[in-house]
Give the backbone structure.
Amino acid sequence: MWKFITRRLLITLPQIILLSVLVFIMAQMMPGDALTGLVDPNLDPATIAEQRERLGLNDPWHIQYVNWVGNALQGDLGQSFRFKIDVTDLIGQRLNNTIWLSLLTLIFTYIIAIPLGITSGRYNDTLRDQMITGYTYIGFATPLFIFALVLLWIFGFQLGWFPTGSSVAPGLTRGTFEYYVSRLHHLMLPALSMALITTVNTVQYLRNEIIDTKQKDFILTARAKGASESRVYNRHVFRNSLLPIAALFGFEITGLIGGTVFIETIYSYPGMGLLFMESITQRDYSVVTAVVLLFGIASILGALLSDIILSLVDPRIRIK
Amino acid sequence: MTRRSIPKAFLALMLMLVLVLAGCNDEKEGDSAAEDELISIEDFNQVKTNEGEAIEGGTLNFGLVSDTAFEGTLNYNFYSGNPDVQIIDWFSESLLTMDENYAYTQDGAATFEVDEDNHSITFTINENLNWHDGEPVTAEDWAYAYEVVGHPDYDGVRYTQSLSSVEGMPEYHKGETDEISGIEIIDEKTIKITYHEFTPSLLAGGIWAYPLAKHIFEDIPIEDMASSDAVRTEPIGYGPFKVESIVPGESVTMVKNEDYWRGEPKLDGVTVRVINPNVVVQSLQTGDIDAVSTFPTEQYKDNQDMSNVEFLGGIDTAYTYIGFKLGKIEDGEVVPDPDAKMADVNLRRAMWYAVDNDAVGTKFYDGLRWNATTLTPPSHPDYHDATIEAPTYDPKQANEILDEAGYIDVDEDGFREDQDGNELVINFASMSGGDTAEPIAQYYMQAWKEVGLNVQLLDGRLQEFNTFYDRVEADDPEIDIYQGAWGVGADVDPSGLYGRTAAFNYPRYASEENDRLLKEGLSEEAFDQEYRQEVYSEWQQLMVDEIPVFPTVYRAILIPVNNRVQNYAYNFTTTGVYRYEIAVTQEEPFEADEITPVEEETGEEAAE
């Protein structure tokens, strides 16, 4: 087991290095830089040229890359030009927000997916199943950003149940009870709108797994032994169907990254996704590379996590 | 499995159809709305109409409209982006105030005396002006701002003309000296600044009037100041409100500064919150916010009847324009190219006559942008010369000019050839961004085609903002003409945009007459305002005659304000209304009768 994990980790390392080179080159290929946006006659072009030189934006990319890797290995991802603070501090602020959002989304995703998947799989081809699969098809077809806007309008503006932006109400003291309640309140709508869309995958997987499993021989055996229908489903079918879902958990994390980019933009929720968008449009290179790298690492680790879970669950795929 | 999937595929198809049809329906609505009567900027008040009786206290919710989080460099001396300055303006201010022409007045926290003979200005800071921590704002603080921003270690972008024109500043900036010879502290509240470039621009926004609290910053190394707590978490100023708490990137809570030098503010406090441009309208309708930093004017038409707000309006200090590439920049100086494709002024004039900018303003901006005539926008009423007759839409005239100038369609393909009978294809660079960018670019090309000019979009598509400016700046030979926009700033002096050595002189235009007028406008005689107006009138006329660029439209700014708010102005710089006077008539904001659905907007800002 440990051998497998170590090997898997060793493969991950060159992946991350390759990713960092790619990210860096692509960031360099983007037209413009952090200072292009400052086309403003009130600013002195000479000052801008000076800052460009100072930031090393005029060096060729491989020199910039070596400098960057050298610093990154020491835990220094550079300074954000726009925010004027260290990228690590900036990401620290934002990562916290995104982790809570992702966590709540995951919880919602499974809360929705498990009962729906089970019902739909157990009673396949009934009206209940058709309604649930209908929902999943709508979910597949609906773009996340449109759905989020609709929810924002209905629950945020029309009904006024949820706040319409930002991560916490202004003016609250950090650490107080009200502060945490307000944060949770601000998280509900973004998390729910993302969960309602992303959950449809899991519902479908679970449904198909259950339909598959319930035709297997050991279920027949269980039935033949006289196990009650609920016991068959809760003990035998459900447990066996859940294994692939658990294995997909890692990929779920990867999927969340894509989702947060939209959700955070729509709800003005300052997390990693919003930071990613902003730093690209404003050409804040040090932040772009750091965030993309972090997303990349999260994806690679997510895949790794899935592989590990899978190998725990299913001994067949272990590398010999 | 296969059999079952058929009804589902059908369901999916139905859903897609529903979406497509919904999309069509939307567009139709848009079309019919555009035919309604026109909106004119003159119909708007600049200052809020006050209704009812103001209450004591209350909190104003200010929406900072931005699709990005604010950076949090909350100090005039360090900020770089627009979102930040919108916050700073609430808790600090320039020591100098301005009139409607953006010229300094004696109404601010500092008054000044100009000594023209010695090229110096003596400033006296108000006795009652204190920082939020109670320390007085001193001449030393003011000088300290110059020492920090001008320092070689300073890593912001605020080192500009207003600092470099101070005597001894360039030497200090290079690190050759430790003192700025042109700055003299006379007493605690008086400072004398001597200038080596002493021009009338100084008195039109050309003075750096943002002191830096020395008692707080002196212990911080200059390169660490912008990231220090004194800028980011506990910013300090001397304005009507003081910062109480900050949620990074999202919101700032402020309370009134009872010690404010103009008098105690009427409001108890202000909350500034970042609002995504997608939901500005809804946030205003629900009363979540009382006022906004900017309002997307293209959304005005659909929301003009919003029942709980009044729209304030003014003319923006900006214009959109079509530029012609006339040369190159070499070693920091413009070198006009007499053989450039657009070198013939008649061709340029004909292209101006060929386009109907009023139609562009009406069709695409509901009248909130309108035909521009000169390169000094009417936002500076005393300098904008409305008597100048600039070409306006007249395709017949355009055809005549082109015929006379020798642009004849020799091979009868519907397009004119140049004077030598060679094929003439003009490459047009235009920026993407917003829903209107594409149709407007298409309209211009169509209008030029009407007079027989073959204008093609560069690479056959719109250019993304950064690419666009990279290529225009680098004098990409593929670009013959381009569409851009300029904000003109406080001072009307155009040398930063059209001077011979200006990096922003993108058309790469230079002429001796132009040099002369730009110089005159900054000469000592031009301290006389009437003389200066004459010079810039002449310059505006020259630009209409020589057409290195032609302005297409001027634009309006609209600011919606909740009906409970009093004494609010569309800007607090030139209207003579100050933030400490803002009051509300009730604790809770008014709500609109109905809330419109949220729509996805594309990044209009990019085009600005």
Summary: Residues 2-33 of chain B form the longest helix (32 residues). Confidence is low (pLDDT under 50) at residues 1-35, 602-608 of chain B. Chain B has 18 helices and 21 strands.
